[in-house]
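Record type: monomer structure entry
Structure origin: computed from sequence
Chain ID: A
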Amino acid sequence: MNSEDNNYCLSITGKTKLLGVIGHPVEHSLSPVMHNAALAKLGLDYVYLPFPIAPENLETAMAGFAAIGVVGFSVTIPHKQAILPFLSEISPIAQAIGAVNTVTRQGNGWVGTNTDVEGFIAPLQTTYHQDWSQKVAVILGNGGAARAVVAGCIQLGLAEIHVVGRNLQKLSQFRQSWQNSIFADKFQVHYWEELPKLIPQANLLVNTTPIGMYPHIENSPLSVDEMEYLSPNVIAYDLIYIPKPTRFLQLAEKQKAIPIDGLEMLVQQGAAALKIWLQQEKVPVSEMRQALQNHLGL
């Protein structure tokens, strides 16, 4: 811990308000780095902490958070869908997606929403000005993160959206869970074996699986052979941000794809969450981004 970190820690008192992130594992999370940088910039008496919560302890942890007055928290793998039954209110976008990544204490209950959609589309809108209505997306994985990506692709107006999974039962559940949603007919689901015909069509290839995440950094959701189906100039987007670049993006770049990692999505979804927790419209996004870049040595 450097002297700057030490000074910051010494400022924490019994009045300091608590924010955090829950996940399992959660030690890899960079959310504390960017959020604490933003809170320091704003001069607020808050601290943002990582909370490793095993799936079987989720309900107990939330009761504990209520007891100690946690203001709000981020939600990451594997809790984005599991947390739904423990919330007293869920925003329309989170209901449509069926997954929550941001929770806020209101009154005697917890309110959940999803800022992953905003985070996902931000780098696509700011960096790649194109007619998305002519594009095809192939999404790897069918968990909570995939749900936000589907919603983001729908918002962008992509012509075709294909979701690909390995587990037939989970893929079927993914499809069925959208039946009463406004997004029900906007995408198709496919088994992994169909990738050879899907990948060549892709203009946007998104990895929403945890495959390749620290500490298993040598892994990729697609093999070298599967990645060879990729056309040049496809946008390959990995929601993972550690390591940088992931094995998935390394393989994609060898096929002359345009890489996007999860760092900007992390920044933008985090900024949207911070606005909710602090109930203010402006947060220091540039400081959040810079803190992450400094931490990663970029």
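Annotation 1: The longest strand covers residues 17-23.
Annotation 2: The domain at 17-114+264-296 is CATH 3.40.50.10860 (Rossmann fold).
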